[in-house]
């Protein structure tokens, strides 16, 4: 048996009696004929009706989930899109919240679909085990685009014809109604309580969003007022800066004139000092020359005095005596 559709599991399996010792392998394969895909799936009438029932179940679940996703966008429009303009940060926040909600819904549906397919496989395998059969699936067939397209055509043809005329099958087994007492009653009460709490939370959320919108409006007004004050203050500061700039320019011009005057005075003083320094140098050289001549003349006069001549004779005699004593001493030392 094989079932292929976009909303349910596609199986290709081989079975063999568990109690049999012979290597007998019986294969049942789904062969979708493109010419007959619009009419049937290659199954008997009973199995094809079971497939149609599951496809109807999958379509209803898909429709409910799509309505849930649509309601997410509708709630966003009604609760958040109340202003004409939004900032980039506000749009990012809104889209992030919507992404989280839609992601959660789609993830929940995908998980639920996977679990539903597991339950369907469990039913098939349980029935096969009662007859001591072992079923084997072919996972590669789940992504066979040709088979998927054929199942899509079958679904389109089947449910298009179903919309034209109602299908009445008196032999189709009915579901057993759930007992309305005990656990079911408690669940209904809990669902009702959660719904009421959800309504309260929605009302509170709308109130908070209105308050937030008013706060944002007030913030925008304050920002505009602040910008106006800053603009006025900026104009006043520009005027003050211009006035101060004129005063500063006048002050700088006066300082430049004073500096130039001081520089000229310093230049003249420097020239005068240089001239005085040159004259002083000349006077110094002249005085040094006169001093040298005076020293020479003084020395000449001193040499011509009697005391100088007597002192020179005494020094000459003393030198001669010293040389004579040195010669004697040298001779005595050589004899020893």
List keywords for this structure.
two-stranded antiparallel ribbon, 336 residues, mainly alpha, disordered N terminus
In terms of topology, how is this protein built?
Layout: E1 13-15, E2 26-28, H1 45-79, H2 88-130, H3 145-164, H4 183-303, H5 306-335
Antiparallel strand pairs: 1-2
Helix pairs in contact: 1-2
Verbal overview:
The protein has 336 residues and is an all-alpha fold. It is built from five helices and two strands. The chain has a two-stranded antiparallel ribbon with strand order 1-2. Helix 1 packs antiparallel against helix 2. The longest helix has 121 residues, at 183-303. It is elongated, with a radius of gyration of 60 Å. The protein starts with 12 loop residues before the first strand and ends with a helix.
* Rg estimate, integer Å: 60 Å
Distance between the termini: 149 Å
Element-level helix/strand string: EEHHHHH
Proportion of residues in helical segments: over 70%
Strand proportion, as a percent range, falls in under 5%
Uncertain segments: 1-39, 164-182
What's the tally of helices?
5
Structural class: mainly alpha
How many strand segments?
A: 2
**CA-based shape:** elongated
Mean pLDDT: 76
How would a textbook summarize the main sheet? 2 strands, antiparallel
Largest beta sheet: strand ordering: 1-2
Give a quick summary of the entry:
This protein is mainly alpha-helical.
């Amino acid at each position: 048996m094989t079932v292929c559709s976009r909303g349910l599991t596609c199986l290709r399996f081989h079975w063999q009696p568990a109690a049999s010792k012979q290597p007998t392998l019986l294969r049942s394969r789904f062969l979708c004929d493109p010419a007959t895909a619009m009419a049937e799936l290659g199954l008997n009438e009973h199995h094809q009706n079971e497939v149609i029932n599951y496809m109807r179940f999958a379509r209803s679940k898909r429709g409910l989930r799509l309505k849930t996703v649509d309601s997410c966008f509708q709630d966003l429009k009604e609760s958040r899109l109340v202003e004409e303009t939004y900032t980039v940060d506000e749009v990012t926040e809104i889209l992030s919240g919507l992404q989280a909600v839609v992601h959660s819904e789609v993830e929940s549906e995908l998980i639920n679909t996977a679990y539903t397919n597991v339950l369907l496989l469990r039913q098939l395998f349980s029935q096969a085990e009662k007859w001591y059969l072992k079923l084997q699936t072919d996972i590669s067939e789940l992504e066979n685009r040709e088979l998927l397209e054929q199942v899509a055509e079958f679904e389109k043809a089947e449910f298009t014809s179903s919309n034209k005329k109602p299908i009445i099958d008196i032999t189709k087994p009915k579901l057993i109604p759930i007992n309305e007492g005990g656990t079911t009653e408690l669940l209904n009460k809990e669902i009702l309580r959660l719904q009421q709490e959800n309504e309260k939370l929605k009302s509170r959320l709308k109130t908070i969003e209105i308050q937030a919108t008013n706060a944002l409006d007030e913030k925008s007004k304050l920002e505009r007022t602040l910008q106006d004050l800053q603009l006025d203050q900026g104009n006043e500061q520009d005027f003050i800066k211009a006035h101060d700039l004129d005063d500063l320019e006048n002050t700088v011009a006066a300082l430049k004139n004073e500096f130039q005057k001081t520089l000229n005075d310093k230049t003249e003083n420097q020239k005068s000092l240089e001239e005085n320094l040159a004259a002083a140098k000349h006077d110094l050289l002249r005085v040094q020359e006169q001093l040298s001549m005076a020293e020479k003349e003084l020395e000449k006069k001193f040499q011509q005095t009697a005391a100088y001549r007597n002192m020179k004779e005494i020094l000459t005699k003393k030198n001669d005596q010293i040389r004579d004593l040195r010669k004697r001493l040298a001779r005595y030392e050589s004899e020893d």
